[in-house]
Amino acid sequence: MVEMAMNFYFSSIVKFNITNLIYISVDHESCDYVMARRADVNFRCHVFREDDEHVNVTRFDSSGVFARRTNIKPLAAYAILSRGYEVLITDLDIVYLKNPISYIKRLCKESDCDMAIQMDVHEYNSGFLYARPTTPTMAVYNRTLQWCNMIQAGDQECYNRAIKELRNSTAPSIAKLKPDEFPSGKYAFPGQSCPSESVLNEDCLLWDYDGVDGYYSNDRRRYVTYAEPVYSESMTPALLNLFAIGVILNRTAILPKVNGPGGKHIRNSWLIFKSKTYQRGAFDKATGNNYRFGNFLRHRLVPNEVKSSLSAVYCFDTDCYHGDNDTIILASSNPDMELTVQDIKDWFGPEQCSVLRLEVCNKRYNNLDHESILSRDLYNILVYKHLDV
């Protein structure tokens, strides 16, 4: 979550020179992390409440801990509004494409609104809203906090209950932000099951945090990828081979583009992380974070010398799919023509290019023991779609 906080800071705050920023955290460790990496002094991180049961809870759960954690948000906003300040509340999975503050303040001035809120399809989104310290706004927050204390629900449900209740009494004037200008994930990707927010941001080139080790900018790291899309039905052997080759050569795997039935392109994030078995955190841990998304080489922070340092396209069989002039066909020295670890080391060990390109390798090679080459968790995720825990 702290990486998400840093990405929001660099992609949206620093980029548009926004000041008077306060991060609200539930633990001191997260605050210390982001404060140590901030680029200016117009930045504060406040631990609103530290409670062991809230720390490291990042997903919805049946115990209600996640719901209680999200309810810190209206509590913090209420404290700020009570001091007479206006506030723009933004979840960390939001990305600003422009500075929204002047637009929203002008909108509320023209419509005399108390609040301006992004729509999450049919309800108000508590993750992006602007509030003024007016009497109707304070009434909404009072009632929201009451609901938070009465039911085991997240802050968004409590907000919407409160607003609905107050329509006939101290109803606030609310400006609904246009979904084409302030789209939620459900609006931008209708009818699809969204993977984690960090996956979407990164796959859509909206992730700008370079990390402490130069996630994008490291010009010494070497990569391996497929030169053409993988068909979804052959994802398992293709990924097994790609990650195994990466481990053998100490190269970071760049996930391939994916074609579904009929050759229709699918974002690899949808295919790889759309189910609970492919959760981002589990995949990161299983790979040691040693992978990148298919759009990685298009990112502006990747050095040009890396982008331009491409190998020829190699394939392992005499019946290569393309066989173009720039495709180099490799044949194993093994009598049964099976690909081996030694083949991979001999062929590509001396290769100095930044990006090693291969034709899709979607065959099962008997002499390539993926189970011993890959971590147990990664092997189980790719083969059995579950973690061995």
Helix segment count? 16
Strand order of the largest sheet: 12-9-7-15-13-14
Q: So what's the CATH class of the largest domain?
A: Alpha Beta
Output the radius of gyration: 25 Å
- pLDDT averaged residue by residue: 82
SS strand fraction: 15-25%
The total beta strand count reads 15
Please give the share of residues in helix. Answer: 25-40%
**CATH T-level topology of the largest domain:** Rossmann fold
Q: What's the CATH architecture of the largest domain?
A: 3-Layer(aba) Sandwich
N- to C-terminal distance: 23 Å
Explain what this protein looks like in three dimensions.
This protein has 16 helices and 15 strands. The protein folds into 3 domains: 1-56, no CATH class; 65-191, Spore Coat Polysaccharide Biosynthesis Protein SpsA, Chain A, CATH 3.90.550; 201-384, Rossmann fold (3-Layer(aba) Sandwich), CATH 3.40.50. The protein is elongated. The protein has helices at residues 2-14, 28-36, 65-70, 72-82, 100-111, 135-150, 155-165, 185-188, 197-203, 235-249, 268-273, 280-287, 304-307, 341-348, 370-373, 376-384; strands spanning 21-25, 43-47, 87-90, 115-120, 123-131, 174-177, 223-226, 230-231, 252-254, 258-259, 265-266, 291-292, 310-315, 327-329, 355-358. Helices cover 37% and strands 16% of the residues. Helix 6 crosses helix 7 (155-165). Strands 12-9-7-15-13-14 form a 6-stranded parallel sheet. Strands 3-5-4-6 form a 4-stranded mixed sheet, sandwiched between helices. Strands 8-10-11 form a 3-stranded mixed sheet. With 389 residues, it is α/β, with parallel strands linked by helices. The model is unreliable at 52-63 and 273-277 (pLDDT under 50).
